[in-house]
Structures are given as structure tokens and as C-alpha cells.
Amino acid sequence: MMTLTTERLTLRPPSPADVPALTEFYRSERSQYAGGNVPHSKAWSNAVAMLGHWQVRGYGLWAVTETGDDTALGLVGPYFPDGRPETELGWVLFAVAEGRGIAQEAALAARADARSRLGWTEIVSYIDARNTRSIALAERLGAVADADAAQPKPDDPCLIFRHPADAGGTA
Amino acid sequence: MTGVTLHIPTLTTERLSLRAPRPEDAAAYGAFLESPRSAGVGGPFKASDAFDRMCNTVGHWHLRGYGRWIIADRETDAALGICGPYCPETWPEPEIAWTVFGGAEGRGIAFEAVSVARRWAYETLGWDRPISLIIDGNTRSFALAERLGCRQDGIYESPLYGAMQVWRHPARAEVLV
Lengths: 171, 177
Hints:
Number of strands of chain A: 8
Low-confidence stretches of chain A: none
Radius of gyration of chain A: 15 Å
Strand order of the largest sheet of chain B: 1-2-3-4-5
Shape of chain A: globular
Strand content of chain B: 25-35%
Mean pLDDT of chain B: 93
Largest sheet of chain B: 5 strands, antiparallel
Distance between the termini of chain A: 28 Å
Helix content of chain B: 25-40%
Number of helices of chain B: 5
Shape of chain B: globular
Helix content of chain A: 25-40%
Oligomer: heterodimer
Radius of gyration of chain B: 15 Å
Order of helices and strands of chain B: EEHHEEEHEHEEH
Largest interface: A-B, 33 and 30 residues
Structural class of chain A: alpha+beta
Low-confidence stretches of chain B: none
Mean pLDDT of chain A: 94
Largest sheet of chain A: 5 strands, antiparallel
């Protein structure tokens, strides 16, 4: 199984064992700016689609775990649904992972892998303007709001953060 | 070079190939989702939902070990619909599901596809008398269920789609002849 490792974390493809926690996330208010806060059946569909993205594209959001404990703390990684204007670095973090820099550590590794292994050059993150936590993370990653970038859903505009071309980001 | 190896078998019939979804199928699926035809499965939806739904379809295979195929024209590979064994978490029990896109109508394609998908579920998964859930008013699907030998077996109140008719497929001995 393909994995990425950082100082504290192991990123691995999501597995069926992650579906319950991910479904709970998409049912919770925590996911309101990430296509969630939806009924059970829809939340489950969202969760399972994250597994499927790996099969359809050959990559997807990684399950983020602390090395030595396989429990997923969230998902971070390359995401590219059909029809999107640009390739995206996406993330969803469960409440338990909050406040320890885990998302940032994972996102830096996932972004570097997207550049080196997938050959991605332009990488953006689509973020709801009310999602202050995600905006703060994008900024810590060195990404900058790009008002001229094409909207993925023109009828429902979001903020588009463009990631730096180099390793970028502050520790 | 995916992180996970998943095998989705391909089934073939005289005219059709039942195969794993591919990104190229999103256009045909999206056109169906935003068309009035999708009222029969709870639509209309946004065409842009197609890719997510295909990811869900493939993820279902990963999670359950079975799932729905794209019904493709065996010669052109064009996507004509979706069918196969299906069991979302909130479903009352596993079902044989089907959806046929516009343009594939009236040629017995759904019957041909669902018949071979159902046989696979019986033979490979050991299913017996599964259900098919059909939204009230979807008369085309009622007719197909009857042609497949199903009998109506109550109503399921879906939190998403409202009242759905439960159709029950025949016993193994009748299907695996």
C-alpha cells in the first residue's frame, strides 16, 4: 500500500474502516463548509465517494493517521472531480485532530507528493468564505487568494487559494 | 499505481458490457441526471453530480465487494445506464438497482443488463430474493420489474426519496435455470 510519512504522521489511502468516522463527519455541523451537514444517507455517499475517487483517478485524499495508530484523523490530499477548472488540494479534519498542526503537516506532504509524483503544477484550494479555520490553514500553507481564478461552481462562488509553486508555507 | 487494488469484474451479454465506471462516463451520466428522466430516481439533479456519484459507485465496490456497473454498448463502449447489486448504508436490505439513460430506451437493454447482473448476484454473492426499490410513479421500472419476475412486496419510506415500492425478485431456483 502506498503511504506518505512525515515526522508524526502516516498518510495512507482511505479504507472501508474509515467510512463510519467519515460518515459521522459529513453528518455533523463541522462539515457544513465541506459539502456536509447532510442526512445520513447522503453523508454515507460522500464518505464512500472518497474511497471511489482513488479508484477512478488513481489518487485522492489521503487518510491522515498518527504513525503507530491507524485511526484516521481526517483526509487531506489531491482532489479532482470531473469538470473542475483546476486541480485541488482538499482537506477535512475531524475534531479530534484540531489544534496540533496535523492538517498542515499532512497537507505539506500531500502537496509535495502531488507535485513530484502526479506532476501537478497549478494547485488551488476551494474554500467557503465563512470557513475561517480552512482559510487560516491555506494561509499557513503559503497559499494566496486568487480573485481571478475560475470558480468551480459559478452559481455558488467560493474563495480560491492558489498554492505557491515552490515548497512554500511556514512551519 | 493506485494505492488500493480493486477488481471490478466485467460481464458481457450479446449487446452489452457491464464494466467499471470511468471518468469518461460522467458526460452521459450528467446528461441523464439533469434531464427530466431522472425524476424516476429522485431527480432532476445537477449534471456536475455525476462524477461524485461515480466515485460513490466505485467506492461501494471497495466497501461491499460488490456494486453497480456501467451498462455500456459492447461495440461503442458508450454508457447507456447503471445497474447491479447495491446496498447504501441506510437501505432496508440489499437491492438490485438499475437506471437507464435516455436513448437506451425501448430496446430491451435494461432487461438484458439487469438479468445478467442479477444472475451474478445470485451466483457470486449467493443472494436470494433480493429487492428492487422503485420510486412511486416510475411506471417504466415497474414494467421491467414485472418482466424480471418480481412481485410487489410493500412500501419503503425513504428519508430521501419518500415512498418507494419494494419489488421482490424470484427465488434462486427460478433465476438460476
